[in-house]
Amino acid sequence: MDNKYLVELFVPTISKIYNVYLPINRRVGNVIALLNKSLTELSKGEYRGNNKTSLYDRESGEKLDNNMLIRDTIIENGSGIIII
User: Fold this and answer.
1) What structural domains and CATH numbers belong to the chain?
2) 3 state DSSP class of 54
3) Contacts from 3-7 at CB under 8 Å and sequence distance 24+?
4) Which residues pair with 56 in a beta bridge?
5) pLDDT tens, 40-55?
6) Of 54, 51, 59, which Cα lies nearest the Cα of 79?
7) Whole-prediction pTM value?
């Protein structure tokens, strides 16, 4: 898929890892909102994101800017990211 990246999403608050597709033409902040909703459903309410949730590159620990498009960040296919 040319318009999505497959990444490994680590969710430390529930100690789980998910493989997810991120749309490359969406802003990081919008993707966080989508992930918060999806993760809440997948975890049956165990995970609860909020408006302070952020995404980080798992390798470097760099926080991703909420205003950047996914394609303009360091994320690419196979990247590991953390949601906190």
Assistant:
1) 4-83 (3.10.20.90)
2) coil
3) 5/70, 5/75, 5/76, 5/77, 5/79, 6/77, 6/78, 7/75, 7/77, 7/78, 7/79, 7/80, 7/81
4) 63, 82
5) 999 999 999 898 999 9
6) 59
7) 0.93
